[in-house]
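Issue 218. Parser rejects a valid record. Input:
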Amino acid sequence: MISTSDSKPGAGLDLDFSSLLGGAAPAAAPTPAATAKAPTEEHTFLKPLDSAPVTAAPTATAVPVMPIAEDELPPIPSESSVARPVLNMPPIELASSPPPVTDLQRRGWTPNPNASTMQAPTAPAGNTSPTGITTIPLEQLESALKLSSNQNFANRALIGGWQNLFDQVMIFSFVQNTLSISAANERWKNKITIGEKVALDTPSIFKIVVDTSHPYHGYVVPGSINEAFFKLANGGEYPQHVTLIPLVRDGHFEGIIMGCCTQVASRSLILEKLEHHGKLFADTLARFATPKQKAG
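Output the parser choked on:
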């Protein structure tokens, strides 16, 4: 039977040989795809690495070095033949190191820049006051007083320590109800006469300390005795601040130590420390007192 399923010639012809030959149609030739073997479910293993030896990389070819004769090398210049640049540098000024800070400065104490650093012995009574008493560190005052061998050295030690705090320092002795100058530094405007007496018959900063045995710490109140004293010692000029510490031993009044400074410098003063200095000084003077003076 012939069936035409397409309009193109020869296309779609389906010949049924079985019907024409009266038997089964011959089997078609197997195609390559049909002859391919169906895959089976088998485990696949990785192929081992090739065991062939690895060929090393070729080494670099060495470059021959041509030898150089010693006489072919350029001469090495000597150190003296090498020109060196000359630098005209100005001299370098090194800053001076600051003075060491003492324990009292760490606590707020400010040293007095006008304090004297010169030295001279204390003059005997009746002569002018000593000039240039050495300023010693304030923390060494106690040991300096203990090492003093006489009253002159004790006076110098006390004044030398107080010059850290005051511009002008003076020591008074009190004997037979009479107050008189026994030592002073050179910062006073006028020459001080050792043994000069200070009147106590009218109110003054001196009379207050003698009568009460308490310190005077503040400015100077104008008065006849105060004016006469500062006219004699300081050209009539009152200090901005004055401190008077009584010297008392075994209940007996024995003198005064006085310091004068500016109002700004007075802010660093600690009255309790100044009173302690007065006690140390009074105890030192007791070592040099005669038996009659010790008896009071």
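Fixed in the parser; the record now loads. The longest strand covers residues 252-261.
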